[in-house]
Design brief:
Layout (H helix, E strand, L loop, with lengths): L1 E4 L6 E3 L5 E7 L2 H16 L9 E8 L3 H19 L1 E11 L3 E10 L13 E2 L5 E5 L2 E9 L1
Antiparallel strand pairs: 1-5, 2-3, 3-9, 4-6, 5-6, 7-9, 8-9
Helix pairs in contact: 1-2
Amino acid sequence: MTARREPPARYELIEHTADIGVVVTGSDLADLFAAAGAALGDLIFDPVRVEASVTRDVVLEALSAEELLVRWLNELIYLREVQGFQWRTLELRLVGETRLSATLEGECYRSRKHTIRTGLKAATYHQLQITRSPGAYRARVIFDV
């Protein structure tokens, strides 16, 4: 399964006491993961202002789809917070439900050009849920602020 996402991200914010929650949907599991990555980008910076001039590759494995989703989102947070990398485009490939490879296109943060929206520490397992219905996947993710 492969999927590609660019801005604008489509997601729903959900109420949570002290953190930020989102609900994302996708046509298949790969599209769901790409949608979650696009939503995360939209939460923490303005991806429309990011040029797709540099690529980063990500390869991850996990024991379940839920664990893989959390690892994926936390890897994206790491790229943004530690390396300053912001993505505009996500191209993602899933092998089964437990292996992911992705190519991100974007650029490193520049204060005169980019806008930071929210600082997020991590994607959590709290209330994490991936559900499947005919023709669609849905995920609920809570981020620690």
